[in-house]
Amino acid sequence: MFLARGQRRERQATIERLYGAIVTQARLPNFYSALAVPDTVEGRFELIVLHVHLLFRRLMGEEGTIRAFGQEVFDLFIEDMDASLRELGVGDFALARKMRAVGEAYYGRAGAYEAPLAGCDDAALTAALHRNVHGGEPGAEEAARRLARYVRRADRALAGQEAAAIIASGPVFPAPEGA
Question: Per-residue confidence of the chain (179 residues) as pLDDT tens digits?
Fold first, then answer.
């Protein structure tokens, strides 16, 4: 697709706004306090992956240009992970291996979340969140159940938003429990 320079800048700004909404949501303190997500690099990564998947899932059900925004948000997520790893001091030799691990982590988690979301299997969604987000920690099962309820609410909220409105104004996620 060939776009004029101004259109490319506007499109890039839209993609950055969409991704920024994901990162902002993933940084909400209640995820870390009320929902016991570890406040670590890994915990923040897990929430970003989760929200990228929720938005990607919503936009992939659309046609053409709107669907393409979902892919471009995913691409920006990958660019952000690359930049973050570089900031953490990962060198060029190790970067390819680390980025492959990021991609595998995303696709593994997306697969683990997609089937329970599509099939309304709350037990499987809770188990996937407990394993991925809470690291399978004993005692974190209730937090994983609360996080699964949030994920269901977020998925329904995104499904109820017009795709064009998501693109124009950004996704509206519900508040996590305890907000």
Answer: 455 676 788 888 999 999 999 999 999 999 999 999 999 999 999 999 999 999 999 998 888 888 889 889 989 988 888 888 888 888 878 888 888 888 899 899 999 999 999 998 999 999 999 999 999 999 999 999 999 999 999 999 999 999 999 999 999 999 998 65
Report the amino acid identity of residue 13: A
Residue 4 CB neighbours (<10 A):
8
Q: Which residues contact 116 (CB under 8 A, 6 or more apart)?
A: 122, 123, 124, 125, 128
Structure tokens at 104: 């595998």
Residues 6+ apart with CB under 8 A from 166: 18, 55, 58, 59, 158
The half-sphere exposure of 81 on its side-chain side, counting CA atoms within 13 A, is: 25
- End-to-end, the C-alpha distance of the chain in Å comes to 42
Tokens 């690099």 correspond to what residue?
41
Domains of the chain by residue range: 5-169
- DSSP code per residue over 142-168: HHHHHHHHHHHHHHHHHHTS-HHHHHH
